[in-house]
Amino acid sequence: MSTAVSxxxxxxxxxxxxLVASTAWGAEPLAIPSAxxxxxxxxxxxxxxxxxxxxxxxxxxxxxxxDVDVAAICDVYEPNARQARERxxxxxxxxxxxxxxxxxxxxxxxxxxxxxxTPDHWHALPSVLACMAGKDVYCExxxxxxxxxxxxxxxxxxxNNRVTQMGTQIHAGENYHRVVEIIRSxxxxxxxxxxxxxAMTRERDRAMGKPADTEPPQxxxxxxxxxxxxxxxxxxxxxxxxxxxxxxxxGGVLSDMGxxxxxxxxxxxxxxxPLTAVSSGQRYALDDNAxxxxxxxxxxxxxxxxVVWSHLAANSHGFEGKGLGIAFYGTEGTLVADYAGxxxxxxxxxxxxxxxxxxxxxxxxxxxxxxxxxxxSREPCSCDWQYGHRLTSAVLLGNVALKSGxxxxxxxxxxxxxxxxxxxDADANRFLGREYRAPWKLPVS
Length: 445
Known about the structure:
It is a single chain. The longest helix has 20 residues, at 385-404. By secondary structure, this protein is α/β, with parallel strands linked by helices. Helix 2 runs parallel beside helix 3 and helix 6 packs antiparallel against helix 12 (385-404). It has two domains: 7-170, Rossmann fold (3-Layer(aba) Sandwich), CATH 3.40.50; 172-364 and 383-423, 2-Layer Sandwich (Dihydrodipicolinate Reductase, domain 2). The protein has a nine-stranded mixed sheet. Strands 3-2-1-4-5-6 form a six-stranded parallel sheet, with helices on both faces. It has 13 helices and 15 strands.
């Protein structure tokens, strides 16, 4: 990113005295409480940044753990913030402080960790600044809007010794652990292809259409919602869940669901990154004002095998009788899995006597619990940002290939697209990041 501020510059300017009028919801005062001492070892004081949609679900998940003290709620849309505050009060009998500017959460020295569940284009900046402010961070998937942002997040976590977790909750489940153990056992023979897919009708069912631009709804700070993204007039289709279908804020179905399903490829096959990616897709089926493909295919080449991603956003008939799934094709047999289970299909006569392997992987106490335990132990989480960045980079590389209109070659060491001779591919690399809209800047070391 060319728009950057240093760690010293950020830490040298307390926001407590610089952001006042922008923080209140109507007449309700939302002043920053004075900094207190750190919480006792048995309680973790957490601030939640983004509490609509997935953020609401994540908040509910953390509320299930008695050692979580919900200290702060932050959202640029007042109804989201109000509902989250009421939920915490109902469950815990205590009222958290409420903000609409995340920087006030980060300025509080009594908060140990933050959970970032904003739209994708808002993942990196609060997360990086939280690390710099000494907070541990749980950030929903995909880790970042762009590969360059993910690099900055990994660097910030490493340089500030922070515990991190990317929100890929299905990773913690027993089913995924068993799939990984079977693939790694070698019982399917040489895996030479993995097919990953999702077919759904949710976009069509939402009947997005082509609504006209309007004024933002009451209680929404639209300029703050846009943040580092380009300035646009408010359109209801750009807001709430539908933000995923606009390039300004996300990467469509691929970035929405890719981390969940491609996780099994990276985990099972123990790979770092694809070597190449080529993609094709358009908005073929749906007539609305969204931008991302409703139909998209990506072919990734990994060392020794291919991965084919396919998604449909206007048809729910996928592969293997599943709307969402993954299939590993080996020389001896095939394993087909989804979130809930898996089946092994042997090639005729080639898996006689096959027995599922013993459990070898350590089990997770739950994705949220992992993060909370790691805050206390300072041990890495199973989906820390280093792992999350590699996985997210592979997902985003599919859209880099789509936007550049060609097969891209990935240099994982330099985290750059390169040509056949190993020189940086400027045409593809321009899609690895973007300029932030003023005054937002992504910090650097």
